[in-house]
Design goal:
Helix 8 (196-202) packs parallel to helix 12 (276-282) and helix 11 packs across helix 12 (276-282). By secondary structure, this protein is α/β, with parallel strands linked by helices. 36% of the residues are buried. The chain has helices spanning 73-82, 94-97, 103-111, 113-119, 132-147, 158-169, 176-187, 196-202, 218-228, 234-242, 259-266, 276-282, 300-312, 327-332, 334-345, 352-362, 370-378, 383-399, and strands at 14-20, 29-38, 41-42, 47-50, 60-64, 67-71, 89-92, 122-126, 207-211, 214-217. 45% of the residues lie in helices and 13% in strands. The chain is built from 18 helices and 10 strands.
Length: 400
């Protein structure tokens, strides 16, 4: 028997939740049911899982509402570890709670996904199955978490955390290199390269990092590279900075989160669907929420045009271009396209000064090419205004 999804209310913020029934049944019996976000509250407490799909092949099965349901090997491993022996567990997981074959529903759910993660009692960052080294790493962090649980650590500085860590390690006979290697292995997991986790992490109010049966709070895990003297890649450090903790608001997360900056920093993330490089960042961005709507009925070129016009304030019907052939190309060459827009806007005798002012105000570090200056000088109607905008931008940049 094939599992058939029932409809959900697409007129409001409705979504489905998954109840993992208690026990040790290897079939992992679950119940799928509908829920609603009403006035930013959900009637039932649930956890949301952030994980990597891995291979799209649904090689494994779970028992969903009494019917066999195919899931990926990665998700099956996660559900098996999340299943509790003595009590049911309610979670939200995209691969099951969203009818992936329904493009209209997918778009609706993506638009409300930030609320799903914000309203979750806790988000589980599932990094995958364990190894000996990752177990050693998480064991050490769990012990630090337990040792400091009765202390008011929310206002602690990183140096105070380091003091507590060194005190704990003073009596640990295991070489610290094992913990460092385990942490590096976790940081190298594909979870950190997946684009959707950006929205999932940014909207988490509380979270744990899990691998196998071991887990530790995101607050403590985010400190691990500092404590263990490990240098994460910049992309990876950006994600650690986003994790819920007292340090989140002192990181880049509280500053530049416009769509341009996000695409510039995270446009190289992994995704099985190119349009998701944009859609996954909408729930994180400070300026694009509501301006661009996730719509899986739009093809990639339509999404590129919508993003291009939003970023550079060109008119939707304008022939200004050329448009990049792919979203990844747009992300890789954002500076080039922005400078090209400036040059072409400088020739625009209708509203070129408005376009130039917008781009220079949002991105004052852009290079002003000689071609742009020459084009502005030849612009009879708007050239003076364009040159004034450029001079003001240069003055502002020099003061900063």
């Amino acid at each position: 028997m094939v599992f058939i999804y029932g409809p959900i209310d697409l007129g409001g913020p409705s979504f489905r939740l998954l109840r993992i029934l208690k026990g040790c049944d290897p079939s992992i019996p679950c119940v799928l049911f509908q829920a609603w976000v009403r006035q930013r509250e959900v009637a039932i407490s649930y956890e949301a899982i952030s994980y990597v799909w891995g291979s799209p092949e649904r090689q494994c099965q779970v028992l969903l509402n009494g019917t066999s349901f195919g899931v990926t090997k990665s998700l099956h491993e996660a559900l098996r570890c999340l299943q509790l022996k003595d009590e049911d567990r309610v979670i939200w997981v995209d691969a099951i709670c969203i009818d992936q074959s329904n493009e209209i529903e997918r778009g609706h759910q993506v638009r409300h996904m930030s609320d799903v993660y914000k309203e979750a009692a806790r988000v589980i960052y599932w990094l995958g199955p364990p190894s000996l080294l990752t177990d050693i790493c998480l064991d050490g962090l769990e012990l630090l978490q337990e040792e400091t649980r009765q202390v008011a650590t929310r206002s602690w500085t990183k140096e105070q955390w380091m003091t507590a860590w060194k005190s704990l390690k003073a009596n640990d006979p295991r070489p610290p290199e094992f913990e460092r290697q385990g942490l590096q292995e976790l940081l190298d997991r594909s979870w950190f390269r997946r684009v959707w986790i950006l929205q999932e992490v940014a909207n988490s109010q509380a979270a744990i990092v899990s691998s196998g049966k071991r887990s530790v709070s995101a607050r403590v895990f985010g400190l691990a590279p500092f404590l263990m003297d490990v240098m994460p890649r910049s992309h990876c450090q950006g994600i650690l900075d986003m994790m819920p903790s007292s340090f989140r608001q002192s990181s880049w997360f509280s500053e530049s989160r416009d769509l341009y900056t996000l695409l510039e920093n995270f446009g190289g993330s992994e995704s099985s669907e190119e349009r998701d490089l944009v859609y996954a960042l909408l729930g994180v961005s400070s300026d694009a929420v509501g301006a661009i709507q996730p719509n899986y009925q739009m093809d990639e070129q339509e999404v590129i045009r919508a993003v291009f016009h939003f970023l550079f304030r060109t008119h939707p019907d304008s022939t200004l271009g050329p448009f990049p052939p792919s979203i990844r190309m747009l992300c890789r060459r954002l500076t080039f396209f922005n400078e090209l827009v400036l040059e072409m806007a400088a020739t625009n005798e209708d509203d070129g000064d408005t376009i130039v002012a917008f781009n220079l105000h949002r991105r004052p570090y852009l290079t002003i090419s000689a071609q742009t200056l020459h084009a502005a000088a030849r612009n009879r109607r708007r050239g003076t205004h364009i040159l004034q905008e450029i001079l003001e931008s240069l003055r502002t940049s020099s003061r900063e």
